[in-house]
Design a protein that fits this description.
It is a single-pass membrane protein. The chain is mainly beta and 871 residues long. Helices cover 11% and strands 35% of the residues. Helix 6 packs parallel to helix 8.
Length: 871
């Protein structure tokens, strides 16, 4: 490994190298690899075969060399060597722009082809993967060009900037590396950034008239202005609202007020002469960034009938209507910019039409920026603030009549409660303002396009002239919706033996928003989510690659899944996962070899348990797999009860089957579950068979046989007998007490106590369940205590002492003298014949039946007590 190198994109788990070594003595060798404590352990080694495996990802940009110590040992001797593994480069790094964000200010008169800005991106890879070239997105629609190698942003040749058309440009720059190999494939990485170019205004635009075309009307009652100088309507400074207006709305709102209240000069007031303003021409510097002052003048067409205020642009009539010879006057108004130095600069002219009218012959008319218009369109984002003005709509409504003939109402026709129009009553002309009334109803998900009609109808005229204009509002989407799951709950079932990475359930959340706002990312959390993971884009929930499910340990999991959009809006749903049981446990007997005693005509029962969680995997069927001869026993497949065949009714019948009469029967029994595939367990069962006729001669044997499978039953019987004795004693004592109390009404002054001679102690020696060589039998031994003397000092006479009821008859014991012990004949058999053994000599006062039955009873009793103590 001295000259070994490894690409940094080598997959984790790859076999990268194999060490090979031998021992001169021929002993087996083992291989080892270690690293510096401060370094990562990126490799593991098979100590037997020397295979080196990559266990952590490599990154050349972070760690170009890996130092390791490899060693070989035969158990006694160790040879170690330090090696250096070189990590070679792969194209795994993305170019990154430096010193973002990029913002630059450029004057609008910058020459074409000039350099504006330089961007720089770096790629940590080497070779072609580390070289970066630059490109522009949407190159066909941009005014800029990019040098592919240096990253210099230039203004295109034969292209100029215009502050009045676009005050800012957003240029998207793409940085791409030279490409290279990554995990066996050719890949190219790229990154994007935005260069914001702000355009600075310069004085290069002529003045712009606001509210064109201009129409004025002169009525019969119009009072002309004398030959006196006019006072300015607007203050000639930069605070003039007309000069600073960027739309028609503020100017025309002010003009309506000015027309309703014509200005007067002190000279007019002094001479008694008054004049009427026809209309006001409004102009502003086209260079809105640094505007100049504006001066107004009339060029021609007035014939001396009109004049204009040079600072405000107000046109006034100087002659009475009777002196006006023409019905229509076409005036030309000139505006001149005055530079900061005070010298005239750029000029512009606009025609003004003034009509001399006297009849109601014009309906209200809607105007746009280019003249009469009956359709207005606007794009706006959904859910604008309450009370916001739709500034993108530049609508003017005008009635060319004068006086009462020019008064009309304005309202909106369409879905109610969404917008409000201002003003609602108009005299002659007004700027139409539409205000948001119900922001919630302006919903992109409900309406992509809102359509209304503006209706203008005259108020006081008999003709009731009217006109309409369509207003179309195209809504733009915003991120105003939360992702919502198709269901509040998701229920899934998966087998417990499903491998890691198995799909469990697919959740789906929908975000009605469009574009990036409608993209949903999924995640899970909760106490039951440790063994699962969710794909962030598809919503597919699967098990962890390392997950090991076990229905017997945990059968159900529940956790929460979260759907989140790009701005953090989210919703939750609950996931319930149930593990389906798989037959993965064998039935288990309590002991590998069980001993049972069978009374002829009764059955013995075997039991096995299966730890699987559900049916039928935990249901067990029983069978006898091997017995010689095979025609002696039957077994219930469902309960495990083993009986002799119906043809065997006595020990003689059983003796006819086999000649081995003194051995225990050995059966090989099988417990098999009902799962698929099925599992089974076998056990060796030993059965002693006892004749019922012989057993009936001893009542104690009978009792023990009846309770051999339930040792607690024997304890219950003994406890019941003792309870009866105690209850009887309590009743007799209580009756004696009340009897003595009733007879002790008069007490003698002097008492003579006569002690009644105590009867001889009635010792009853009950030898019940007396068994030798066992401590458990002491629990079943009953003794009667000698009676206590009872003298009643309160009674005039002596009463008989109460006695306990007669105990149950003693069990018949085997006589100890003169007779041989009684042995129950048994018939035994075995699958594997054993050598016969000589029976031991019988002991005095001990029955072989009692000894065998009590021994089995003791084992079951101790097992039962141990189980209850555990629970």
């Amino acid at each position: 490994m001295a000259l070994f190198s490894l690409p940094e994109d080598t997959p984790v788990g790859s076999h990268v190298y194999t060490l090979n070594g031998t021992d001169p003595e021929g002993d087996p060798v083992s291989y080892h690899i270690s690293f510096d404590p401060s370094a990562r352990s990126v490799f593991s080694i098979d100590p037997n075969f020397g295979n080196i495996t990559l266990i952590e990802e490599l990154d050349r940009e972070r760690e170009g060399e890996i130092e390791a110590i490899i060693s070989i040992s035969d158990g006694l001797n160790l040879v170690a060597e330090k090696v250096t593994i070189l990590v070679t480069d792969a194209n795994d790094e993305v170019p990154r722009f430096i010193q973002e964000p990029y913002i630059v200010q450029v004057p609008e008169d910058i020459p074409a082809g000039s350099s504006i800005f330089k961007v720089h991106a770096m790629d940590k890879d080497t070779g072609s993967g580390g070289s970066v070239t630059y490109f522009l997105q949407n190159i066909q629609s941009t005014k800029f060009a990019m040098d592919h190698h240096s990253g210099v942003l230039r203004l295109r040749a034969e292209t100029t900037l215009d502050y009045e058309k676009a005050q800012a440009h957003f240029v998207i720059v793409v940085a791409k590396d030279g490409g290279g190999r990554l995990r066996g494939a050719d890949v190219v990485f790229s990154a994007t950034t935005t260069v914001t170019v702000y355009v600075e205004d310069v004085q290069d635009m002529a003045p712009v008239f606001v509210g064109t075309p201009y129409y004025g009307y002169v009525y019969e009652d119009t009072v002309p202005v004398g030959d006196l100088p006019l006072s300015p309507v607007f203050p000639p400074d930069a605070s003039c609202p007309v000069l600073q207006a960027t739309s028609r709305s503020p100017c025309w709102t002010w003009l309506s007020s000015a027309l309703a209240h014509p200005p007067h000069t002190e000279a007019d007031s002094g001479s008694g002469q008054q004049g009427s303003e026809v209309l006001t021409v409004v102009a502003m510097d086209g260079d809105r960034g640094k505007p100049n002052h504006i001066l107004y003048s009339l060029l021609n067409g007035s014939d001396g009938a009109f004049e204009i205020n040079e600072t405000s642009g107000a046109i006034l009539v100087t002659q009475s209507p009777a002196q006006l010879r023409r019905e229509v006057y076409e005036l030309h108004v000139q505006v001149t910019e005055v530079s900061s130095a005070g010298s005239p600069a750029v000029q512009a002219t606009v025609p003004v039409t003034i009509r001399i009218v006297d009849l109601n012959n014009h309906p209200p008319t809607f105007y746009g920026e280019s003249g009469p218009q009956n359709r207005f369109e606007l794009s706006m984002y959904e859910h604008p603030p309450q009370g916001e003005i739709l500034r993108g709509l530049k609508i003017t409504v005008n009635d060319s009549d004068q006086g009462a003939n020019a008064k009309f109402n304005l309202r909106m026709v369409g879905p109610g409660g969404i917008f409000r129009v201002v003003p609602q009553t108009v005299l002659n002309e007004a700027q139409v303002t539409i205000i948001v009334e119900n922001s919630a109803a302006i919903d992109f998900e409900k309406f992509k396009l809102l359509t209304f009609k503006l209706l203008a109808i005259e108020v006081s005229t008999p003709e009731k002239f009217s006109s309409t204009a369509d207003v179309l509002i195209q809504l733009l989407d915003t991120n105003d919706n939360v992702p919502k799951f198709t269901s509040h709950y998701y229920i899934a079932r998966i087998p417990e033996n499903a491998p890691g990475g198995s799909n469990v359930v697919a959740v789906t959340a929908v975000d009605p928003d469009t574009g990036p706002w409608g993209e949903v990312r999924y995640s899970i959390y909760g106490s039951g989510a440790d063994l699962f993971l969710v794909h962030p884009s598809t919503g597919i929930i699967c098990t962890q690659p390392w997950a090991n499910l076990d229905a017997e340990a945990t059968a159900r999991y529940n956790f929460y899944v979260k759907a989140e959009d790009m701005e953090g809006r989210y919703s939750l749903a609950e996931v319930f996962i149930t593990l389906l049981d798989v037959n993965d446990h064998y039935p288990q007997f309590g002991k590998s070899i069980q001993e049972k005693t069978m009374v002829l005509g009764t059955s013995v029962k075997i039991e096995a348990t299966d730890q699987d969680a559900e049916e039928p995997n935990n249901l067990v069927d029983y069978s006898i797999t091997h017995a010689e001869p095979a025609n002696v026993f039957d077994i219930d497949a469902y309960t495990g009860e083993i009986r002799l065949k119906n043809s065997i009714r006595s020990l003689d019948s059983l003796n006819n089957v086999t000649c081995n009469r003194d051995y225990t029967w050995s059966l090989e029994v099988q417990a098999k579950d009902r799962g698929s595939p099925s599992f089974s367990t076998t056990a060796l069962l030993k059965i002693d068979i006892i004749d019922t006729e012989m057993l009936s001669q001893n009542s104690m044997d009978t009792f023990l046989m009846q309770t051999k499978d339930n040792p607690m039953k024997a304890v219950g019987v003994l406890a019941g007998i003792m309870a009866i004795i105690v209850a009887t004693t309590v009743l007799i004592s209580t009756a004696t007490f009340w009897r003595n109390k009733k007879t002790n009404k008069v007490l003698p002054v002097r008492r003579v106590l006569r002690k009644r001679p105590s009867p001889a102690p009635h010792a009853v020696h009950i030898e019940w369940l007396k068994f030798n060589k066992t401590k458990a039998t002491a629990k079943f031994l009953l003794r009667e205590d000698p009676p206590n003397e009872n003298c009643n000092k309160n009674s005039l006479g002596s009463l008989p002492v109460p006695r306990a009821p007669v105990p149950p008859p003693l069990p018949r014991m085997v006589p100890s003298m003169g007779a041989a012990p009684w042995t129950v004949p048994t018939v035994s058999g075995s699958l594997t014949p054993l050598q016969p053994q000589q029976s031991s000599k019988p002991k005095a006062l001990e029955s072989p039946i009692q000894s065998a039955l009590v021994s089995e009873l003791r084992q079951k009793f101790e097992k039962s007590v141990a189980n209850k103590a555990y629970l």
